[in-house]
Amino acid sequence: MTLQTVLLVAAALFCVGLYGAISQQVVVMVMMGLELMLNGVILAAGAFWWFLSPAPDGQVLLLVVITAMTVEMAMGFAVATLLHRSRGSDMTDMATDLSR
Amino acid sequence: MTGSSLTQVSAAWVPLAAVLLLAVAAAGAAFDGAVAARAEGRPWQHGAGVPVAETARLLRQRRRRTVAADRPLELVGTGGLVVVALLMVVVVPLGRWTLGDLPVGIVWFNAMDVVVWALVWLAGWGPNSAHALVGGYRFLAQALAYELPLMFAITAPAVAAGSLAVGDVVAAQEGLWFAVWMPVAFLVFCGAVLAFSVRAPFSAPAGTDLAGGVLADSSGIDRWLLLAGRWALMAAGSAFAVAVFLGGGHGPLLPAWLWSLVKTAALLAALVWVRRRLPTVRPDRLLPFGWVVVLPLVLLQLLVVAVVVVGRG
Amino acid sequence: MVDDIVFWGLAVVAVASGIAVFRVDSMARATYALAVSFVAVGLALLLFGLDYLGVVVVLMMVMEMAIMAIYMIMFMGMNPALMPMSMVHGKRTSLAVAGLTFAVLAAGILLVDWPERRGAPAADLTLAVGRAVMGGKMLVMMTVSAVLFATIVSALVLALPRGRYDDDPADEAAS
């Protein structure tokens, strides 16, 4: 268990999440991809903290990531619910006009 | 890792702890049967044997399968409840001994009771049956009602003791139990124990109007695991309440471990008695009650506790 | 040594269940596979001495995934346990992007000359994170947070219109 190995595992988690976030068609599945990416970030942040500088206040970064995840989740649920209510579907391809 | 006054025992004691937990759970079930028999006008001895008879019957019963059941998830849901109850008592000290007094024992207990959300829903989802699934959804709905009051209720002793380790919380209650000066938090926690073990007034997920809800399609050993899991959760919740609210092993004359056991048994008996007296409440009525009435009360309680602690310096 | 074995076990579980999220056909299985991945990472944080954060990750993510499962099943509009399906677009591009990202990250991880460890962890890390967030005024902050939370809930209760189940005639008869 060295810094490199932990970071490799974190990178693997991040990339699996990235694949999901790009490829999935359903909004909630895209959210799962994003969550998995943040999961990797949490592991990496924990590893950086432990192996590089276990200063007392370094844990705050992790707290920020965890908070970001809950906010992402709440916003994601809101977007998915709104999409579903207004269009009866939550496929990303059908919401491309939102970017225009 | 351990708190000041506790001895951490080796992992070899885990099986004994499991047996003890199941024994307390079985005693609770037997008491429940006895009370039920008395209520029907039969001698209590007839009811006290119900857990044993039911165990014998279910272990011999052949397992019935439903069509297109999600078997792996169902197994996790049914088998998990007993495991979670065991993981809960890991942080609960028995007198002076503890299996592992985590520095964040109270958060650990909270995390384990959140796992119950997932397990009950999975037990409902697994059989691919409408009644069971509705039961699972009902549990999640009322979980939203009881979880936040539960969290703030167990925050109060942690604030008062200035520590998240259960050992420190027990040590802080020497002389005065937390249940005495934070009664609201204690009562809310007792309600939450009834809720996560799916007992009245929170028994809608396994209600008779749903033909048993999450229990509807279970049979044989699966059903036994679900029922035993509910009793074990109730026993584990009582044991935790004893540690954080009722002074743990503190008490005169008797040794500390015996006090822990006696208090746990008494609280469990009280909870069994309460659940027999109360009707099942619909989850959609629990939700506004939980958020509009109970949550402000618990927050007020937390405020009082915090002010007292600040005042003491 | 024991730590190494535990870490590798958790790492395999985390990555394997992460992959399973996008491979299984059932929405319930996908959601709970993600939950397993989070629990594995939360337990791995315990190995780094991050007790509080590790347990909080387990607590929050199991809760989120229990709710997530409902959203998944609600929005898919079918019983995904019974119908295998593939709902992806640009699978090849996505795989390539993900693979390339991993290659870049892995190269960076292995090639960078990481600095030596500086400082030592505090004796009580849970207390340390509390002090880092709230300073010496932890009790005051806890008091304030309870009050703030109460305000948020009461404001929401006052602001929200009555829900769609509230005009149930049975309720009105009861009240």
From TrEMBL, chain A:
E.C. no: 7.1.1.-
Reactions listed under catalytic activity: a quinone + NADH + 5 H(+)(in) = a quinol + NAD(+) + 4 H(+)(out)
GO biological process: ATP synthesis coupled electron transport
Transmembrane segments: 6-22, 34-52, 58-83
GO molecular function: NADH dehydrogenase (quinone) (non-electrogenic) activity; quinone binding
Gene3D superfamilies linked to this entry: 1.10.287.3510
InterPro entries per UniProt: NADH_UbQ_OxRdtase_chain4L/K, NUOK/Mnh_C1-like
Binding partners and assembly: NDH-1 is composed of 14 different subunits. Subunits NuoA, H, J, K, L, M, N constitute the membrane sector of the complex.
The protein's name: NADH-quinone oxidoreductase subunit K
Organism per entry: Blastococcus tunisiensis
